[in-house]
Model the fold of this input.
Amino acid sequence: MDQLQSIRAFARVVEGGSFTKAADTLGMPNASLTKAIQQLEAHLRVKLLLRTTRRVSVTPEGAQYYEKTQRLLKELEDVDASFGALQSRPRGHLRIDMGSSTASLVVLPALPDFLERYPDIRVDLGVSDKHVNLIGDNVDCVIRGGELTDLSLVGRQIGSASWVTCATPAYLRAHGTPRHPSELEEGHVVAHYLSTRTGRGMPLNFERDGEKLAIHGTRGVGVNESSAHVAAGLAGLGILQTFKYAAAAHLASGALVPILEQWQPAPYPFYVVFPSNRYVSNRLRVFIDWAAELFAKLD
Done:
């Protein structure tokens, strides 16, 4: 049994959900692929896949084996890619995780440019405001905002985003337009962004002439996902503080109105983060460089 070939065959079935698709991508007969996986299961003495006439499903043991062998395949791919002609033509599979507004408003609209530059790289995006376990979740890197605190991770700052504090015209007509951040403590409602780590509402930060203020105000609603957070502000559920790029279209249309513009907090840094003990493949390196180009354009 060619164990490496069998592992690759198994991985293609898991990713494609089909023996036929896997055989096509590997350029091997369906019968040969089936035999390779049967030999692998016999070698491991465990059932990896459940196959019916309609579908293929992965057993719990198969899912665990897939996750662990994917790391081995990627490391082998990285070693291969560091030699010869592959060095100038990055290829392989990238798994990247980022927040929802970052994905939908910054990265995904520009991703065709990256894939045009590097057509041999396949990208999977995990989209969530929750922080993932880079090692446990088998992720190559994450794009996250805020200062780095985990010493087991390495981060490269790729840019920063400006903030905007805003509300709907209807909200401001009903509650008035605040002239000072302290006015948010009484007579106003805040649409809070909830920390995915603690579940607590994040304060609205303000800075002017060296004076810094952190205002919590009265919570109207709390939301723990960035796109929904903007939607809460658009619904008139309170004053919103978010990244300018996340609200740009709504500010331009007049659906949201900026307030307290003289009280501008410091820009929020964004990083590409990956484990400190992980080999930085050529494909990850070109993605980081591309992301730095992209985020340098953020307002």
